[in-house]
Design goal:
With about 230 residues, this protein is an alpha+beta fold. The protein has a single domain, classed as Glutamine Phosphoribosylpyrophosphate, subunit 1, domain 1 (4-Layer Sandwich). The chain contains seven helices and eleven strands. Helix 1 links the parallel strand 2 and strand 3. The chain binds glycine (GLY). The site of glycine (GLY) has 10 residues, from strand 7. The site of glycine has 10 residues, from strand 7.
Length: about 230
């Protein structure tokens, strides 16, 4: 499992990759951010920090999901990978972005990765700038999709840069990156983002993306397809 978190106020970030049996990898990413001088830990070293921070560990059975297992059986041994969005049921990448009452932005993303990805392959989720990015002056972004494309396009940071250097709105930046630049490279997926005004964007070029947002004093909104 991979996870990352970034704080838009001070640019601090934490990430973990290739961890096993940690119940909440996102809490481990937060522990990297808050309790070490480093940004990115992987494997045994990350799990060592989880034990030191007394995070909860679960056995393999806790993480077993029959739907995912059956999906893997279909593509096992082939070069085919499946995204979270490749099915009606979704048990995969989870992202969150938020603006708090003091105007601070933050983003977090956690995943078990694409089904049938190569052993030890790390996707975009734990890579700050690719799957996750936050800066109080612009936006907080959390991505989901075919990680290789999101890494090569540095998607989350690209959204930030288009706002900071080119003056685009979050909506314009998201449309350009997700529905133009990523599509041209063949990158399937989407992202959730919020700007410094608290306006959310939930954009995707896949068939659907399980998503929701909530603004203070308004009804929560949840959607799946376009
Ligand atoms: N976006 C998740 C992955 O590529 O593994």
């Amino acid at each position: 499992m991979d996870a990352s978190v970034m704080n838009g106020k001070d640019g601090m970030a934490g990430a973990v990759a290739g961890v096993r049996n940690v119940m909440n990898p996102i809490l481990l990413a937060k522990a990297v951010m808050e309790h070490t001088d480093f940004v990115f830990l992987h494997g045994n070293g990350a799990e060592e920090l989880a034990r030191a921070q007394q995070l909860t560990f679960c056995d393999d059975q806790y993480f077993f999901d029959d739907f995912r297992y059956q999906q893997w059986q279909e593509v096992k041994g082939s070069d085919t990978t499946k995204l979270d969005h490749s099915s009606e049921k979704k048990f995969g990448t989870v992202g969150a972005v938020a603006k708090d009452i003091e105007g601070n932005l933050a983003a977090a993303t956690s995943t078990g990765g694409m089904t049938n990805k190569r052993y030890a392959c790390i996707g975009d989720t734990p890579i700050i700038g690719a799957g996750t990015f936050a800066n109080n002056n612009t936006c907080a972004v959390s991505c989901t999709g075919h990680g290789e494309y999101f890494i090569r396009s540095v998607v989350a940071y690209d959204i930030h840069c288009l706002m900071e250097y080119k003056g685009l709105s979050l909506k314009e930046a998201c449309q350009l990156v997700v529905n133009d630049k990523l599509v041209k490279t063949g990158g399937e997926g989407g992202l959730i983002a919020v700007d410094s005004n608290g306006t959310p964007q939930l954009v995707f070029n896949s068939e659907g993306m399980y998503r929701g947002y909530y603004c203070y004093d308004e009804q929560p909104v949840t959607e799946i397809y376009r």
